[in-house]
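Please, structure for the following, as tokens.
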Amino acid sequence: MTVETTLDPTPVSPADALRDLCGGAVHLAGDPGYDTARMPWNVAVDQRPAAVAFPRHAQDVTDVVRAAAAAGLRVAPQGTGHNAGALADQALEDVVLLRTNEMSAVSIDAESRIARAEGGALWQDVVEAAAPHGLAALHGSSPDVAVIGYSLGGGLSWYARSLGLAANSVTAVEVVTADGSLVRADARTERDLFWALRGGGGNFGVVTAIEFRLYPISDVYAGMLLWDRERAPEVVRTWAEWSRTAPDSVTTSLRVMSFPPLPELPPFLSGRQLVVIDGAVLADDAVAEALLAPLRMLEPEMDTFTRVPSATLTRLHMDPEGPTPAVSAGTVLDGLPEEAIEAFLAEVGPGSTTSLLAAELRQLGGALGRSSADAGALSHLDGAYAGFFVAIAATPEMAQQGRADATSLVGALAPWATGTSVLNFTEERTDTSTAYDRGAWERLRTIRAQADPDGLFAANHPVPGRRRGPA
């Protein structure tokens, strides 16, 4: 008697359909290169998608989007992964993480003052390309942040109080939509999509290239002022009073910082607790010096404010470059009255034992607080200051303490919070609607339903379509 046994074939993951795409640069869970491929810039974030794909050009993006949709998978575009925590807070087992960092070309049209950056280009790439033409972009405070994610989320630059959000200097977007089409959205074509992309994040497609205005800023009066943290009470109070009436030409931040004693840090930082004011003034030297005089009267131990090439501003803020483990929390404040200052200092001022690397208050207002008729979904920011509180999370214990300290500071400042969000500074999942006014939010939901009716795209901060639930 012969007994025949039929074995079921090994189950095939839906993501297997993508293996041959992007020249083979697709990594599925369990593949040898998967763990490296899924690692974002913030290495404290554990994102585990069904697959990670590295497109080399727009056609690769189109192929991945179409194949993912056919396999019943979703797509999450990601450049560097600075803000990856908000995505990793979502279920990713049916998501193809589409890492665009292989697409990094930048070109400058100096005559029209327009830059074009591919989907994975970094701000440093743009700054270095624009500088020889005497032009500057509305880049952020970190040189290795991707242009696309920053711009789609709003974008706060050192010129923000003069020139507004970076999203509203975007002039065109090339994007692969949910049906796998590559379209160009600008003020004349795909106008609703163009509006939504400027501030609406990665909810509407995969951006393969973006074009934006450059500005004739070859040099700027910029730098930092630095004191020991023991001086924080007078420095914070003086800066708060000064910032209330500072003209739009000034954009600054104030940080209370605590550095570990590391040999790779310069002596003025290593092992120290400091208070730092940095920023830029779009004015001539005489005007800038007069504006800064009240802060300089506090006799900082270091004062680097001077006329500098605009290209140097990408590293003014001393943000870490390269993969870094971090946790953070943020808020938006409508002001800094004495009670708010006292609450801030109680958490991070002299004598505190906070684990936060930096407790930052960034100056808003000016052009950031004004909307224009041709703006996108994020036309302006309500509030006077954006708070961003970050801690290094090299171990789970450090992450737990850092998150607790950041959350505690947000709670201490809650009486003066606007209830709104700056999504570029929001590294955990939140109520996305808090970043927009009601009319903009409802329009975003309508456009999402039209552009992506099946919820193909997974964004850091989801916008649900009006006819369906969140993607």
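The two ends are 56 Å apart (CA to CA). The longest helix spans residues 396-412.
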